[in-house]
Target: Hydroxypyruvate reductase
Amino acid sequence: MTIVRNAAELGGTDARETALACLEAGIAAANPERVVADAVTLDDQMLHIADDQYDLTDYDDVLVLGGGKAGVGVARALEGVLDDRITDGVVVVPDAADLSRVSVVVGDHPVPSERGVEGTRRLLELAEAADERTLVLAVVTGGGSALLAAPAGDVSLGDLRETTDALLDSGAEIAEMNAVRKHLSAIKGGRLARTAAPATVVGLVLSDVVGDDLSVIASGPTAPDETSYADALDVLERYGIDAPESVRMRLERGAAGELDETPRNTDPVFDRVRNVLLGSNFGSLDAARNEAESWGYDTCILSSRVRGESREAAKTHAAVAEEAIFTGNPVSPPAVVLSGGETTVTVRGDGTGGPNQEFALSAAIEFATAWRTETEVVLACADTDGRDGGTDVAGAVVDADTVDDVATARTALADNDAFDYLDARGAIVDTGPTGTNVNDLRVLVVEQPE
Model:
């Protein structure tokens, strides 16, 4: 199945075809139905999840609760394994789907909405009713921080939305953003596990977080949390975020000890909780590496943990291509250098784009200005969920010919308007929603110098 819908327009050379094939292999490796099938099996009444097993005769109810961008795929795969053994369930996801045992509620991303709040409320009601003879299969996937919206205390949805918008524009990293969101929520930061206690809870996790920190993925609804209300306040201060009064008052009350902190690792609620990592960015990079090697390229995984400002990280990747051409390091052409992680954009202009588009445009400027050789260099960047930033495109494919007017390209980058520039150049990657989310995937193809 072709994942990149406009692959024919983006291809045309061996380097471009290789870059696209690697992108597709990486995204396919994170398909939620595929990773669940690898980890979850049923043998009569014995449910096997990774290295653990659960005797279904010990449970009166099996619930599927959670959400995120890969929520439908995980829930559908669980229905395929368990069928009518699933008693009930709710997943909150970005796109509508029909499942037989689990209710699908459409929410919104990256800013939470009323329909997401309603779906999360229904989910929490099922968790609240769980007892020691309930098995909760918690679906925890990227995007859950926005989709699973449950404002706590006096924080309104409007105030939560305003705070989320400010965090998204600030350039804060995901762990910093989620430290704030956990302390404004009734489900994040281990609170789903606390609500479901004394049920047995198994978190089925697809990571969209650098380093696969369980407490950060979807803001860690089933994981212990070591951040505090004071940490959340510090994020607001460092990024100059003027949060609504209800948000600041809740965080200040928590920092003063007037509110319970999120549950720590020592909390007994986690005695009956197990989290299983089903898919990650490195798994996708590994699949992309295998694909590149099948095309005859030497490969190097630079890192699965690239972060920081997109346009700056792109310059480093352009320098890696240059080094490979002139010194053969870190790998000699023909080569494919792969990286993942999650870069950020500090929004200063009023254009349209996303981290992968800014990364691609910045790299293309470097390709056009920093050095010129007879070697073909292609960079493909994509968000594995198919939606880069606030756009409906995944990213871009660029080379040394993408930028033919450096001044115009730099102006677009300064205005955070990478989409319009790259779209006009026929460089945009269109996948549509992929049904998964394991962060960004970048493929740098360096051909043999002539």
Remarks:
- The chain has a mean pLDDT of 96.
